[in-house]
Write a structure and sequence with these properties.
Bound molecules: adenosine-3',5'-cyclic-monophosphate
Strand content: 15-25%
Shape: globular
CATH architecture: 2-Layer Sandwich
Helix content: 25-40%
Number of helices: 7
Radius of gyration: 15 Å
Distance between the termini: 6 Å
Number of strands: 4
Number of domains: 1
CATH class: Alpha Beta
């Protein structure tokens, strides 16, 4: 079956609230494999590039200040259909509307301070992974995938 990689950003509100561990725990518990992880501070240029499609939106200045306010954790995770799996795990953009059981649904009360970003399509995942990680920073390692997936899923 199709293994995918997706980009996750643990945002400044999660860092301030000490929720990075909780988020990483959920990703690991689910069975996704971490293939890249780093802490960095986004500067305005990187925020503008990453959120380019929102540049003209009224909330952009707030988003820019917020995303560059503290370091964040960027991660690349891998798994079968990882892009849609992670999107479902994080829940709707607005934390107040996100379903309980999702990361935003359980921990966020805000549209902007919604703890986490994750790529929403294969094309965006490729672009976003390249934005945050160099090829050599991504590590392909052998995990015992048979404990997570059935044999036919691994064919
Ligand atoms: P994210 O999934 O990272 O994608 C774009 C981000 O912009 C989103 O999470 C929110 O943090 C923010 N955002 C989107 N819509 C709004 C909005 N209407 N008001 C404020 N922030 C928003």
């Amino acid at each position: 079956m199709r293994f995918e990689r997706t980009l996750i950003l643990i945002k400044p509100d999660a860092m301030q609230r000490g929720l990075a561990g909780e988020i990483i725990k959920r990703i690991e518990n689910k069975g996704l494999k971490i293939v890249g992880i780093k802490m960095l501070k986004m500067d305005k240029k990187l925020v503008e590039e990453h959120y380019n499609k929102y540049k003209e939106k009224p909330f952009f200045p707030v988003l820019e200040r917020f995303m560059s306010s503290t370091p964040i954790i960027a991660m690349v995770v891998e798994g079968i259909e990882a892009i849609s799996v992670v999107r479902r795990m994080i829940g709707k953009t607005n934390g107040r509307e996100a379903e309980s059981g999702t990361i935003r649904g359980d921990f966020s009360m805000s549209i902007s301070k919604n703890l986490i970003h994750a790529s929403d399509s294969e094309e965006n995942a490729r672009e976003e992974i390249n934005r945050f990680f160099k090829e050599e920073e991504l590590i392909s390692w052998k995990r015992i995938d048979e404990i997570i997936y059935s044999e036919d899923e691994l064919e």
